[in-house]
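Recall that a protein's primary structure is simply its ordered list of amino acids. Everything else, from secondary elements to tertiary packing, is in principle encoded there. The following example makes that idea concrete.
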Amino acid sequence: RKMIESDIQHLSQGFINQDWPGREEVLARYFLEQESGEREVLVAEIDGAVAGYITILPSAKQGPFAGRAPELSDFNVFEPFQNQGIGNLLIEEAEKRVKLISDKVTLGVGLHSGYGPAQRLYIKRGYIPDGSGVWYQNQPLKMNALCHNSDDLVLYMSKELL
């Protein structure tokens, strides 16, 4: 379902429950962006508990697809709800919504092991790297350049929606 204002606190608590920082400020911005049509936020709920979310940008804001195609962004399934197919269902619904406006969907995925489950899910769902190599701090990383294996190290991928 689409995000409602009360999800801000519940989603932030989901991060806190897994020993991550809360994200109320970011989630409040997402809600406002959803209200203005800049972003759509889909929330998975199981038995009244928020299990995760994904956001859809009608036009990518950074990376090789910036301004050229919709992007799935900030995808999270909380640890107690992982390995139950929730992530797959969130992406499937997001792809259905993107298909209404585009025949292509894009995303960026981090390269450290924390993104391993997402990397595998994207490949299984038919996403392929765009060929621009890895990006670091929103720039293509040149050969032999140094970087830190952080959330800023990203591989961009796309999928044709048939």
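The first helix runs from residue 7 to 17. The CA atoms of residues 88 and 95 lie 10 Å apart.
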